[in-house]
């Protein structure tokens, strides 16, 4: 009896500590892997063509990463809660077209208003997703698969085959797409602000920690008194609003917007998050990782033509990376779990 | 609204227009879908010019074929609680390989079996990641969706192979003896019946349902749930490859983007057919009806010159409605059943 008590008191303090460090170790290994891959890739590509690390090329990479990273941040927030948002590509297209038409109709519109409208459209789309998931009892995968079709259909309906060209957009908006502050593009700064705010809220604030709790164990989250419904609603609305913001930036960067803008983006966005260590079954992952994933995918994309590798390989590489990422996660966590079990069974 | 459940309090009974018993019939979502399908077919033949024509019927069948074929193994996979989003990419990759082998001078009789073997291998890769590594099938098949489609582009680039032998392309689009019965009809019916029997009347089928209902319970009952899932992914690969071959022959065109996005239509049809995304629940007749419903609705709307954009909205709307409607009905039924349950929703 006393032995059992002693064993229990000895064991109790051990388990809580290692799991956190285990998760941290996996994430650290993941980030380190991505950074290493990035360094090697950039070095090899720069050796093949020094222009790859020239100002213009780096700027292009930074701009593409900015838009993908904003989407990946929104996706991460949703995936952490054990949901998924496949409609982001369509939301981007719809909100980009909304911002474009506003600017076309009223060229004097302030930039902030155009961006605000795009984010509002995106948030509304996110709200529809959230309501269907929460109150319809429909799984997020099904809802956002459906709204992927619906939002895209609405965009096509609205555009009616029309395309908003760069010469129909006010100059100040296009200027905003290429503007820089101290040499850093404004779009990149916006993405950085989004990333830092989301990273701090997810990591340090109750609202963020609640999302991890919901994703780790929804039932336990309810019992712990977390208002799961409100948090999920917020997650989807934020994801939608960020997709809307990405749409506004897309319009500013490319100048030309049609209803097909952002088609198929959802695949790259999910890939960026998953490659960055966000686990699709929820409860684990950071926006920093997702942003690193977005950077890696973008650099690969820009390095292929420089390395004279057929552009057709790009999609295959994205797929292979997803599989590699989720498999290494699996192997690492299984090995860590085995280690922990061995350590605990020895009573340490 | 009349409150006719004696035991209920005012708040609970207010939303209940009918006794629980009558709504119980709606538990059979499949019956609703089948009725809806018949309704659409009847209304379309009566009101849409040209819908009932023999020529259009052949077109309708050709339109249905890819989604119907892939929906068969997809139903089984979703029944086990998994999903395969890579089907359309397997279709595209086999089509691309078929095209490049044909350009390379291989005989079509050798190419087709090779393509089916390729499909089995691609399906086995999915199965390996899901069952051996224990990864979520959603993440795995999103990965292979990109990988296989990417490989299709690597194989064929932006080229199209169009000169398949007429003996084969003509058979796929033709009718038996030049009559009104399409050549594809009989093989399709055989496939549907075979899958229906396999799911609903064999031990293997019961094993699939049991795996989806509760993987743990099924394993304790002695079922090799992992082997069941692996086999289904291989089966899905083979059927998708077969569809890829038929697709290339039907349009006389093998391109890397053949069937892009088809996985969404297939999943939409399977869920609309009443299969639960969580596994363990569903029936093949419901799925077949849903495929016919979606295809005939699209066909009829197209004949009425409704734009493709509207069609995508209809598909997406039906997908959500299919899952939403039973839940809403169940909620209504639960409210009518007892006062206590009203608190839950």
UniProtKB/TrEMBL annotation, chain A:
Compartments in which it is found:
Cell membrane
Q: Name one GO cellular component term.
A: plasma membrane
Membrane-crossing residue ranges in chain numbering: 34-55, 61-79, 86-105, 111-133, 140-159, 179-202, 232-253, 259-280
| Key words, A-Z | Cell inner membrane, Cell membrane, Membrane, Transmembrane, Transmembrane helix, Transport
Tell me what topology the record assigns in the membrane.
Answer: Multi-pass membrane protein
* Primary location recorded for the protein, binned into one broad class: membrane
Going by the entry's taxonomy, the superkingdom of the source organism is recorded as: Bacteria
Q: Name one GO molecular function term.
A: transmembrane transporter activity
Could you give the subunit structure recorded for this chain? The complex is composed of two ATP-binding proteins (LsrA), two transmembrane proteins (LsrC and LsrD) and a solute-binding protein (LsrB).
Job of this protein: Part of the ABC transporter complex LsrABCD involved in autoinducer 2 (AI-2) import. Probably responsible for the translocation of the substrate across the membrane.
Its protein name is Autoinducer 2 import system permease protein LsrC
Organism equals Kineococcus xinjiangensis
The organism that produces this protein has a lineage beginning with: Bacteria, Bacillati, Actinomycetota, Actinomycetes, Kineosporiales
UniProtKB/TrEMBL annotation, chain B:
Pfam families under this entry? BPD_transp_2
Which compartments is it annotated to reside in?
Cell membrane
CDD domains reported in the protein's UniProt record: TM_PBP1_transp_AraH_like
- Which keywords appear in this protein's UniProt record, sorted alphabetically? Cell inner membrane, Cell membrane, Membrane, Transmembrane, Transmembrane helix, Transport
- Main localization (coarse): membrane
Q: Write one Gene Ontology MF term.
A: transmembrane transporter activity
Q: How does it sit in the membrane?
A: Multi-pass membrane protein
Gene Ontology CC, one term: plasma membrane
Please indicate which superkingdom the organism of origin belongs to: Bacteria
Query: Which residue spans traverse the membrane?
Result: 31-51, 57-78, 85-105, 111-135, 147-166, 186-209, 230-249, 284-301, 313-332
Entries under InterPro entries matching the protein: ABC_transp_permease (IPR001851)
PANTHER family linked: ABC TRANSPORTER PERMEASE PROTEIN YPHD-RELATED-RELATED, AUTOINDUCER 2 IMPORT SYSTEM PERMEASE PROTEIN LSRD
The name this protein goes by in its record: Autoinducer 2 import system permease protein LsrD
Species name: Kineococcus xinjiangensis
